[in-house]
Design brief:
The structure is a single chain. This protein is α+β, with helices and mostly antiparallel strands. It has three domains: 127 residues, no CATH class; 124 residues, Jelly Rolls, CATH 2.60.120.230; 179 residues, Jelly Rolls (Sandwich). Strands 1, 4, 8, 9, 12 and 13 form a six-stranded mixed β-sheet that branches. A five-stranded antiparallel β-sheet has the order 6-16-21-18-19, with no helix packed on it. Strands 3-10-5-7 form a four-stranded antiparallel β-sheet, with no helix packed on it. α2 crosses α5 and α4 runs antiparallel to α5.
Amino acid sequence: MRKMLAAAAALAMWTVLLIADPGAVPQGVDTGQTSAPTFNRDVAPILFNHCTSCHRLGEIGPMSLLTYRDARPWAKSIAARVLTGTMPPWHADPAHGEFANDRRLTESQKDTILKWVSAGAPEGNPADLPPPPTFVDGWQIGEPDAVFSMPEDYPVPAAGTLEYKYFEIPTNFAEDKWIQALETRPGSRSVVHHVIVFPRDPKPAPRQPPVFAFAKGMDEPDNPEAEAKKKAPLNDRPAPARNGNFVGGFAPGQLARTYPAGSAIRLPAGSTLVLQMHYTANGTAMTDRTSVGVIFAKEPPRHEVKVNALINRNFTIPAGANDYQVDAEMTLQRDVTIWSLLPHTHLRGKRWAYQATYQDGRVETILSVPMYDFNWQTEYVFKQPLTLAKGTTIRSSAWYDNSARNRFNPDPHADVRWGDQTWEEMQFTGFAYTVDGASVQASSDAR
């Protein structure tokens, strides 16, 4: 099982175009145009806009696509991935909602790439090459206003199961700050499964009336033995007594989040950043020192963005079940705007759907992810944020394949329950929201 988990972790890190495809160019490509596309004139603009944020030196993509020399050896593999729709990675059904971070290529862009490869992937006239995109070394959000790093290089052993580790980083700000963009960068990506960042306010404000009423029965207590392993002395970096609301983090496919002008997340004065680290041993002993970079809003926002989670911990997925459904539900207690949804399961998750039921009885699918991919933890950011009235109910539904037909399944003979590790499961949705009409000074909500 350790080998399977290591393979899954490696797949999560190296998700795209791993080896050049020496095979035939995909069939069915129309090459009838008189002037074949060239890299400099036609293909480079597509790669610059859709690919190079990940496919450049030091990023998650296993090769750079910034130059013709970089891209040419991978031309046939690029065509194959574009033809199958696996690159760029995007898993939402376009029939339900429009999203600001939609990575899909248009049919015209796909056709351009396929024709370029079919024509032998010519370079073209150097004068046609547009200026390459400008990146700040090491950061997708640009030069951070502040960088917070773990206070130590934490040793990750070559083997074994690691409970979540928690590290605290003081910010030392004398006044509130407003986070416009946040990016989390692991020091050793190959052993970091995920990171969640919590700002802990030294003086929490009085709790506000709840914004969401979560359905009962979704928070079954964890196994006492499993809970004990998370605590000292069995865990050398246990969770603190209080974390705060989470504001961002890292998972494969989800490194950075930038909020539009006029909206931001509050970082209270004197906050301590708490980093929840999930490490996965990969056969080689390593050390990690993860960092968090932030860009601050230049002025207080009109909307204070907050992040919460819709979770169901109370489920058992039977061994061998290939389409098992688990739901979670909440009802809005205030008028709320939902900015994004981030579905998360582990290796058995196969698809997701979200429905809003309005007070007049209408039911609308607001997001459908028919081909959920554990290797890409995508936050689906609505192009037009959803303004939902008090009384609206949101239901999330996740389906799981716990059968032998799921090639990533660690053990199809085991019943599966909620758990932190990837061979266990989760039914978790993170979502960013604002409370309509609320003052930006409000600082905490009750679940």
